Amino acid sequence: MTAMADARDIREAGPAACDDPSAGEVVFPSLPESAGHARRLTRRLLGGRWLLPPELTDNAVLLVSELVGNAVRHAGAPSFGLRVRRRRGWVRVEVSDPSRALPCLLPVRELDVSGRGLFLVNHLSDRWGVDLLPEGKATWFEMRVPPR
Fold it and tell me: Fewest Cβ atoms closer than 10 Å to its Cβ: which of 60, 67, 88, 93?
């Protein structure tokens, strides 16, 4: 099967409504509309099932959108993955793609219309980074979950 056929299959299938990024990686086609699907899955998990505070959920959803946007625009691959993990006091969100090109945090000026994604990740998350994988990378962020 060719890469083009793989992308077409992914596009036609799309992520299932029951896909759970906390149970394993959910794979999306590298299309702009995938950002909306990734945001909805993240919101359903963090704000719905895990009942995390609205501000944390909203910020995480925004940052998912930024990381997905980077994967779609810059990775040049037919798909990317989303995984969300929770451990005591923390939530970790990972967006993986097959590119080994590292994202770069750029200085942002007031009138800049692009290049703000990692700036937002840097300011709204408690920590973030990139893990190189055997085939690609995972860009991630972590946020502290306040005690109840």
Answer: 88
